[in-house]
Design goal:
InterPro entries: AB_hydrolase_fold (IPR029058). By secondary structure, this protein is mainly α. It contains six helices and two strands. The longest helix is centred in the middle third of the chain and has 18 residues.
């Protein structure tokens, strides 16, 4: 996400006078390789639903509007949200219960709804 924000700012000429160089890891330009059903359904639904459901500048994944949106997505045919991490990321060989527990103490973080509209 940081790389995406940096590339967007650089393309608009913002903050360039403060940067001598940048090492950008895994730049995100598009998400065409999403394979999980939940990701695809969320991306398709998000743009059309963003203004009616959220109406907010900040996307807070721990907030009630996002929870309601996720419940609606999980009710779609073919979407299995029993294991939400796997439903979002796909199968991962390296995640175990303790790793997920540690991850969920600090994540997910809020972001701008503009970023999510761009990604979806």
């Amino acid at each position: 996400m940081g790389t995406l924000i940096a590339l967007a700012a650089f393309s608009e000429g913002k903050q360039l006078e403060k940067v001598k160089s940048a090492a950008l890891l895994s730049p995100v330009a598009y998400l065409s390789h999403m394979t999980t059903t939940l990701d695809v359904v969320a991306a398709r639904a998000f743009v059309s639903e963003i203004t009616t459901i959220f109406g907010l500048a900040e996307f807070n994944p721990r907030g009630e509007p996002v929870s309601d949106f996720l419940k609606a997505l999980c009710a779609q045919a073919g979407v299995d949200c029993y294991d939400l991490i796997t439903a979002l990321t796909g199968k991962n060989c390296c995640l175990n219960d303790s790793t997920v527990e540690h991850f969920l103490k600090n994540e997910p973080q809020s972001t701008s709804t503009k970023n999510l509209v761009h990604l979806s």
